[in-house]
Design brief:
- Homodimer.
- By secondary structure, the chain is of the alpha/beta class.
- The protein folds into 2 domains: about 150 residues, Aspartate Aminotransferase, domain 1, CATH 3.90.1150; about 230 residues, Type I PLP-dependent aspartate aminotransferase-like (Major domain) (Aspartate Aminotransferase, domain 2, 3-Layer(aba) Sandwich).
- About 40% of the residues lie in helices and about 20% in strands.
- It contains 14 helices and 17 strands.
- The strands form 4 sheets. A 7-stranded mixed β-sheet has the order 4-12-11-10-7-5-6, sandwiched between helices.
- A hairpin with a 2-residue loop joins strand 13 and strand 14.
- It is globular and about 60 Å long.
- It starts with 8 loop residues before the first helix and ends with a helix.
- About 50% of the residues are buried.
Length: about 400
């Protein structure tokens, strides 16, 4: 076989559920990436809000190298030091008392939903099984999580779905009041919808959901897969809403690029997942946990979190200046370094056009639906990289207006 990997191999050997760009990245340092031909890119995508410390950050390289020379994997018949240290750290910086480790956000959400159903069944009986979630939400790609997610484009076409899942409009307080009942076992929501268009929950909505969950003995699950680990400028986004969930899922930035997810909960509910009720072969493996511990140690620093807000201001200012020139965005929304530039009426459906044009200028972007350009860069991206990247975005938009 030819030693040079070619992009056209994708069509021959990969399941066609992705539509990757033509270039293949081969190296990354900080917020810079290089492809096979040596072309340089500035990374405003961060691997979809994953590479929170950029590429090959020294603390991550050190952690993975040191752990790779110790032990990589153990079965869940035993525990390990990195998993215990990471779990302890996560409980210290959150509401939670207990942690379950998985490999992804979808798996963390699957565990959260199973726990909620288990609590309801054992405490109140099988009739208390309704899960309320929200339209345009996204919670993963397993059959259960994609059904709870509120986007039919992702869940339709696979046959009968898991039942008793209700979807309501996000931020619609009256609709929520009308639907929740004593048969509701859990409410699952993102404190800021990511894939659904970078839409923030209002404080009033979040607090009303919490109050009514308490009234009806329903568990409140926060999906912080994308918003957690410093992405919004607080370690978890729930802190900014003044609301504490019963269960929280986290992944993406937790490992900074190493696959890991976690479900966090309290001493009140953790015992319902007793021995044998749930598990994960790779969940909590020492290699992933060692890297995640290093990531959390950096991200949780006050100066890192403050830096997220500083960088948010630079992005917002730069995007507003671009919009003054081209009148392409209707609003800039989001929090911290989870930013969405919503396209105006004239540009509806053209977010991918912006992404492709940016790629030609050496800038990596994301979309959140067909009409929102999404920015999820490293939380410690160099401010000069922000300036240069926004200049590339300016050129990209100029090429398509």
């Amino acid at each position: 076989m030819d030693s040079k990997v070619e992009r056209n191999w994708f069509n021959d050997v990969m399941v066609p559920c992705y539509n990757p760009m033509e270039m293949i990245p081969v190296k990354g340092i900080g917020s810079r990436v290089w492809d096979q031909q040596g072309n340089e890119y500035i990374d405003f995508a961060g691997g979809i809000a994953v590479s929170c410390l950029g590429h090959c950050h020294p603390v991550m390289v050190k952690a993975i190298t040191e752990q790779a020379n110790k032990i990589w994997h153990l079965s869940n018949v035993m525990t390990n030091e990195p998993a215990l240290r990471l779990a302890k750290k996560l409980t210290e910086i959150s509401f939670a008392d207990k942690v379950f480790f998985a490999n992804s956000g979808a798996e963390a959400n699957e565990a959260a939903l199973k726990l909620a159903r288990r609590v309801a069944a054992e405490k109140y009986g099988d009739d208390k099984s309704e899960i309320i979630a929200f339209k345009q939400g996204f919670h993963g790609r397993t059959f259960f999580t994609v059904t709870v997610g509120g986007q039919e484009a992702y869940s339709d076409g696979f046959g009968p779905k898991p039942g008793n899942v209700t979807h309501l409009d996000y931020n619609d307080i009256e609709a929520f009041k009308a639907k929740i009942s004593d048969k509701t076992c859990a409410v699952m929501m993102e404190p800021l919808q990511g894939e659904g268009g970078i839409v923030s929950s209002s404080k009033e909505f979040a607090q009303t959901v919490r109050e009514l969950c308490d009234k009806h003995n329903a568990l409140l699950i926060y999906d912080e897969v994308q918003t957690g680990n410093g992405r919004t400028g607080t370690f978890y986004a729930y802190e900014g809403l003044g609301v504490t969930p019963d269960i929280l899922s986290t992944a993406k930035s937790l490992g900074g690029g190493i696959p890991i997810g976690a479900m966090l909960t309290t001493d009140e509910y953790a015992p319902f997942l007793k021995v044998g009720t749930h598990g994960s072969t790779y969940g909590g493996n020492p290699l992933a946990c060692a890297v995640a511990e290093a990531v959390v140690n950096v991200v949780s620093l006050p100066e890192t979190l403050a830096g997220v807000k500083e960088r948010e201001a630079l992005f917002r200012d730069g995007l507003e200046k671009i919009n003054e020139k081209y009148n392409i965005f209707s609003e800039i929304r989001g929090q911290g370094l989870l930013i969405g530039a919503a396209l105006n009426d004239e540009w509806q459906g053209r977010a991918r056009d912006v992404l492709v044009a940016a790629g030609k200028e050496g800038l990596m972007l994301l979309v959140a639906g067909a009409s929102v350009v999404r920015f999820t860069p490293s939380l410690v991206i160099d401010k000069k990289d922000i300036e240069e990247g926004l200049a590339k975005l300016d050129k990209a938009i100029a090429s398509i207006v």
